């Protein structure tokens, strides 16, 4: 089990992705994180900007499927996609995740 993280500078894109993931049973829930400040070091300069991300609980085996679908759907503006492992999870939530996500 993982927590998938999808980041973008576009709130609208993330809203669309969240709906897609939920409707297609690729995650069991989505949490929104807006107006996050990010700093990167680029060409000797610190660059600050705001971005947004969503997180969702899913099966680790669905990561590649989610990644490929989003890369296909958003070829020109692919969001940043990565995951965090879920080491432990409440048994009832674990059962919900297994039963409510796409079968693999």
What does this entry look like structurally?
The chain is α+β, with helices and mostly antiparallel strands and 104 residues long. The chain is 33% helix and 38% strand. The protein contains three helices and four strands; from the N terminus they run βαββαβα. The chain has a four-stranded antiparallel beta sheet, with helices on one face. A hairpin with a 2-residue loop joins strand 2 and strand 3 (45-58). The protein is globular.
Keywords:
104 residues; 4-stranded antiparallel sheet; 33% helix
Brief summary of the model shown:
The longest helix has 13 residues, at 11-23. This protein has helices at 11-23, 63-73, 91-100, and strands spanning 2-8, 30-42, 45-58, 80-85. It is 33% helix and 38% strand.
Topology:
Blueprint: E1 2-8, H1 11-23, E2 30-42, E3 45-58, H2 63-73, E4 80-85, H3 91-100
Antiparallel strand pairs: 1-3, 1-4, 2-3
* Rounded Rg: 15 Å
How is the biggest beta sheet arranged? 4 strands, antiparallel
Mean pLDDT: 95
Annotation, overall tally of beta strands: 4
How much helix, percentage-wise, in residues? Answer: 25-40%
Determine the N-to-C terminus distance.
13 Å
Describe the strand arrangement of the main beta sheet, using strand numbers: 2-3-1-4
Kindly estimate the percentage of residues that lie in beta strands according to DSSP: 35-45%
| H-E order | EHEEHEH
Q: Low-confidence spans: pLDDT under 50, at least 5 residues?
A: none
Which geometry do the CA atoms define?
A: globular
Counting DSSP H or I runs of 4 or more residues, the number of helices is: 3
> Helix- and strand-based class?
alpha+beta
């Amino acid at each position: 089990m993982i927590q998938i993280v999808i980041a973008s500078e576009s709130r609208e894109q993330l809203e669309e992705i969240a709906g897609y993931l939920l409707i297609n049973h690729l995650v069991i829930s989505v949490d929104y994180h807006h107006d996050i400040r990010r700093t990167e070091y680029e060409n000797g300069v610190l660059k600050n900007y705001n971005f947004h991300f969503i997180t969702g609980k899913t099966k680790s085996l669905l990561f590649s499927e989610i990644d490929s679908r989003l890369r296909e759907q958003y070829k020109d503006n692919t969001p940043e996609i990565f995951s965090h492992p879920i080491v432990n999870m409440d048994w009832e939530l674990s059962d919900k995740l297994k039963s409510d996500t796409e079968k693999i």
